[in-house]
Amino acid sequence: MFQQYENYTTDDHTTWKLLFERQEANLSGKACTDFLLTLSDLGPELVSDQIPNFRALNKRLWASTGWTIEVVPGLIPVGEFFELLSRRRFCSSTWIRKREQLDYLEEPDMFHDIFGHIPLLTNPTYADFMQKFGEIGTKYAGNPAIERQLERLYWFTIEFGLLMERGQPRIYGAGLASSFGEANQIFSGNISILPFEIEKIINHDFRNDVMQTEYYAIASFEALWKSLDGIDALLGKGVAAQV
Predict the structure, then answer these.
(1) What domains can you pick out in the chain, each with its CATH number?
(2) d(Cα 173, Cα 163) in Å, to the nearest integer?
């Protein structure tokens, strides 16, 4: 599959602009420093004025960390997803939500996939973490219990993870970075921020149809990358609880 850029309508580009400008402003003081820097550095390939052209964006990604965008029709089997991550290919849809859907979607669209995920894939440490995550997922492909535990780790890190910067929580997870409402909820005082503990995370169930109320924070991307040594050893020894 590939992006058919000429098929985007004026309304599609307008929706992208509304989402981008609103969330870029909203993340000031909420997102981690590296997310804000990498988002800024991806201009002019990733800007508010128009839907990004994947061909141009891929050139920037490849030059930065060797990652590329893999166009998919929607959600794909978890084993296939992990295998693509292991080869530094990040899955993205090419459709954009309707204007009346700015704040809620049942499954991720291109704004979530690109605005939320792609900037940090130009950060070398985070890019290495994502590839290693995919390698571990591929190693345990076909084991439903372990795949479910890895899905939980993905959810509470890559989608809804927080970094602590100068003692304050800051967003790096794409589900937070691309969501106006949930990004604001982090700072509402109505959620719990938990210390990053691998065994708790992989056994922590989640729902994908509501905003989260519990999040996990880690000190740095270096610590996040190193944590995968722990998860691999934990799963490999069969220590993790059965789902």
Answers:
(1) 5-236 (1.10.800.10)
(2) 9
d(CA 234, CA 240): 6
**Residue 2 burial (C-beta neighbours within 10 Å; 0-12, 13-18, 19+):** exposed
| Torsion angle of the four alpha carbons 16, 1, 112, 224, in this order, in degrees rounded to the nearest 10 | -140
CB atoms within 10 A of CB 11: 11
CB-count burial class (<10 Å; 0-12, 13-18, 19+) for 17: middle
Tens place of pLDDT for every residue, the chain, 243 residues? 899 999 999 999 999 999 999 999 999 999 999 999 999 999 999 999 999 999 999 999 999 999 999 999 888 999 999 999 999 999 999 999 999 999 878 789 999 999 999 999 999 999 999 999 999 999 999 999 999 999 999 999 999 999 999 999 999 999 999 999 999 999 999 999 999 999 999 999 999 999 999 999 999 999 999 999 888 778 866 544 444
Cα dihedral 61, 66, 72, 76 in deg (nearest 10): -130
> In the numeric block, which tokens belong to residue 195?
């210390």
Amino acid at 40: S
For 232, the token pair is 């691999």
Length of the chain: 243
Return the structure tokens found at 199: 């065994």
